Amino acid sequence: MRVISGTCRGKKLFAPPGVTTRPTSDRVKEALFSILDSRIDFADVRVLDICAGTGSLGIEALSRGAGSCCFIENNPSVKIILEKNILATCCQSRSEIIMMDAVKALQMIARRGTCYDLVFFDPPYESELYKDVFEVLNSPGLLTHYCIAVAECSVRNRLSETYGHLKRFDRREYGETALELFALEE
Known about the structure:
5 helices; 186 residues; alpha/beta; 8 strands; Rossmann fold; 27% strand
């Protein structure tokens, strides 16, 4: 697992041993960022990485010029790896880690009034978090009107086409992994 492009290109990222996390493969990450590159300019975007794990997706965005990334992770042992990866890529000044349950963290962030331009959401595939997280992402002021939200899931688990004001505009499958991309309806 490595950073694919940008200022940290080629930097190897740490992953916890075992199956505690399922980091996004380089192949899937490369495909995802190819899709995103055609839709957004990463310069100064505010990124939210929910169920961040190793931080691979948020760090990739930071490497490509994102202004900031808020990483949400609730596993203390995984948080140590996340911190190590942020430090190794010199992204500390543009990173925030919230060690909390995803839904509670998003509710707290929504109260702060910070808006995000890009959201990565990669929970355990069998998680029941999808509906609850998307519900909170619809909170007023949490997402910019041009935000893209990316959810990673199993190919066997097709997410809803809409969650509140978020509507799926693309789905791609790579082996056992599916990427579903959402945007706010006009």
